[in-house]
Structures are given as C-alpha cells and as structure tokens.
Amino acid sequence: MANSFLGTGWSFPPTFDNFSNNLVMTSDEADIQLSLQILLATRKGERIMLPDYGCNLDEMLFEPITTTFKTYISEMIRTAILFYESRIDLNSVKIDDSRETEGVIAIVLDYTVRTTNSRFNFVYPFYKNEGTEIQ
C-alpha cells in the first residue's frame, strides 16, 4: 500500500494494529474521504504549520438555515477543498436540510478523483445543536 499513487496516510483517529504493532494506514479513495472528513472538522488555526487549514463549520451552529447560510457554507467548503485537497475536482456541494427539525444538515460533496477520473460522494453530517449526539 505504500506505493499508492493517490496517497497513503494515518487512519484517524490514529490507531495501532494489535497483531503487527504498526500504525493503521489508509490509502487511495479511503484516504481522500478521510482527508475530507478531517478538513471539514478542523477549525482554522488548529494546525500551527497550516493556520488557514480547515472550514470553521462550528461557527455556523445555531444559525438559521437560509439560502445565504447554504451559499456561505458551500463556498467555505469549496475554498478549503480548492486549497487543501488537490487530488479531487469538486463537482458540487449540496446542503440537505431535510432533517433540520432534528438539528442535522447533511453536506453532500460530489467529486471526481483527478488521476482515476472516478466519481464519488461524501456526506458530512453537520449537527446544528452542539452536543445533541453525546450519550
């Protein structure tokens, strides 16, 4: 897997294989999906060496779901992917607010992996009410 042309990276959160005592790695399309997950979940300024990395989606908590809100989030995600995930071409960003009454919106990314010309979807659940899924 170390020769993957799409990239290989640590799993997140970092975990170890109990049998080989090695770090669990992800490769290819799974690595891209994990990279998108991390990019959308990271606040700008969290990474010292990349202070502009991330999306700051948590600042959108408790905002009313309007056309302006959807457009702002879409453009924030497009910009972050443009600068920090060069392995893909983003085809569309859709905000699914069908579960708005539950406090959840789904951010649906449709993208094409540049080197393989394969299309994929990535769904990121964004919880509008902080801490609602904590048990």
Question: How is this structure best described in words?
Answer:
This protein is α+β, with helices and mostly antiparallel strands and 135 residues long. It has a single domain, classed as Roll (Nuclear Transport Factor 2, Chain: A). The chain is 24% helix and 26% strand. It is built from 2 helices and 5 strands, in the order ββααβββ. Strands 3-4-5 form a 3-stranded antiparallel β-sheet, covered by helices on one side. It has a two-stranded antiparallel ribbon with strand order 1-2. The chain is globular and about 50 Å long. It starts with 7 loop residues before the first strand and ends in an 8-residue tail after the last strand.
